[in-house]
Amino acid sequence: MVGIYYDELQAFTVYKGQQITFDSFLPPFYQGHEESNLLTTSLQGTGLPVALSFGYEVEHDQTAGRIVLNLKVFGKLKWKVGTWVSCRYRFNVNYVSVMYFGPNAPTALLSSNQVAQCSTAM
């Protein structure tokens, strides 16, 4: 059977190229063949310094009815095939989410009706 060990996971949110939340670290875990795992964390940015234009940019995007956020996850993984375990590989995930505002916006903050794109690199 094939599985993956995930380790040193770090998540944060980016808005227009600027990190807007502190790093959040997730515990290591193993994902077996055809298993899925739900990861949860709290991403907060209170007190994090941002560019002077941040308020203007957010207001502009809200007026336009949408805001684009990137959830970034960095980490390391090891492959397990039978009893063999690989060396560690670094990986990066970039999840792009478009959130809509206004009367036609979905009621859930991140609903399945919203536009999203995810890319992974190793």
Automatic annotation (TrEMBL):
One of its GO terms (biological process) is defense response to other organism. It is found in: Membrane. It comes from the Eukaryota. GO terms for cellular component: plasma membrane; plasmodesma. Keywords: Membrane. This is Late embryogenesis abundant protein LEA-2 subgroup domain-containing protein. It comes from Gossypium stocksii.
